[in-house]
Structure formats: C-alpha cells, structure tokens
Design brief:
Spore Coat Polysaccharide Biosynthesis Protein SpsA, Chain A; alpha/beta; single chain; about 230 residues; binds magnesium ion; 7 helices; binds cytidine-5'-triphosphate
Amino acid sequence: KSVAVVVVAAGRGERAGSAGDTVPKQYRSVGGQAILARTVEAFVSQPNVSWVLPVIHPEHEQRYAALGLGGDERLLAPVHGGSTRQGSVLAGLKALAPLKPDLVLIQDAARPFVPAALIESVIYSLGAAQGALPTLPVTDTIKRSLDGAEVVGTEDRRLLHAAQTPQGFRFGQIFSAHMRAASVRREFTDDAEIAEWAGLRVVMVPGHRDNIKITHPDDFARAERIISGDTR
Ligand code: CTP
Ligand code: MG
C-alpha cells in the first residue's frame, strides 16, 4: 500500500512567540536543526512512506527554501496552506489526489519527535480501521465548567485520551470527508474528528510522551531536553 504524508506547517505559531518579527516556531532550530526539517526527516526516513508533502504559509517560501531540504525524490515541493489548520490539510490532500495514495498520514510540523515505531503502528492499524491516531491517557483531573468560573462536574478521566499526530486514514475516505467538512459551518479540531463525523471507524494507538507539539515558549527548552536525552 502506498503511504503519503501531509506535514501541515502553514501556521503562524503565535502562542510560541511574542513579537511579530520572531521566526515562526516551525522554522526555529532545536538541537541545531529546524523543527520542520526534523519532522519532514522523520517521515522521509521511513522506508514505507512514498511521498511527503509539506504545506507551508505563502509568506514562508524563503524560510522553507533556506532549510535546504530535498535530495530525496519522495519529498514533494511544498504547497500553500489556508487560514485554518483544517484548510491547510485540505490543500495538502488536494495536491496529493493525483498521486492516488492508498493511505495518508496527517502530521503537525510542530511535532518533531514522532518516533518511527509510532508511525509504523498508525500505518499498521489502518489494515483494519479506517482511521488511526496516537493518544495518551489524560493524567490531570478534568473539570467541566460552563462559565469558566463555577464547576458543574468532573469528567471520568478513564474515558479521556489526549490526541497526537500522525493521524492516518484511507486516502479516498478522508479526502471526501474533508471536502464535505469544508462545506459545513463548523470548525473541527483535528482530522480524526472529521473522520468520526463522517462515520469512519477510528482507533487509537499508544502515543509517545516525547511526541509533544511545540506550542508555548517553554516548549523549546523541553524540546532541547528531549534531544539531549535522546540516543539518535
Ligand atoms: N497549521 C497550518 N495552517 C494553519 C494553522 C496551523 O498548517 N492555518 C499547522 C501549524 O503549522 C502546526 C499545526 O498546524 O504545525 C498545529 O497547529 P498549531 O500548533 O496551533 O500551530 P500554529 O497555528 O502555527 O500556532 P498558534 O495557534 O499558536 O498560532
Ligand atoms: Mg493554531
């Protein structure tokens, strides 16, 4: 089965940086390598991946070129994303459609530490399921509030799982689900939610604690710690 990967990198990274002139998080280096380069490399180095497609912000063309990626024919030329993550994923899926991949993995550029074994287990799970994503058990106690002040309940933590990427699907199914999702007035938080909404059967695989999404400024220090404890 052919596997394509969409790496969504078209965000502005606002929560990770304060000033408007700072380098967007996916182009910042950790351990001497840009986050986006790390994420792309994690997939290009997978023997069972046929294509990796970065989706970038139109204003980041030069930043992308400066990464000096390429050299592997499986790394496709980047396409431009949209104003939402959902729009950026759809732009990637549209660009991949002519290649007719069997499976597609959708990955946040901001998760540079995706382990190879996790990628493999997502792909493996698609043998039986229509969607697969890595999750971690929620460890905090989760309170429910309607007004942000008064507690109206406590969630049953055993039922809750925190989602990561890559999220994998059969290409044709997630493409048509995404096309339909784009035509309704609703914002979906991840691709698995779109799959669930479309009635696809989505399963979880064990995520990894190092598979963090760089989101806030202190996540860069956390990333450096992950790299220094790393044997790769
Ligand atoms: N993303 C994208 N297109 C968008 C918004 C987000 O491709 N319009 C990508 C980001 O580049 C990131 C991933 O989706 O790799 C997850 O999004 P998030 O962590 O929220 O990144 P940003 O949207 O860039 O950050 P922020 O929300 O803090 O501005
Ligand atoms: Mg965002």
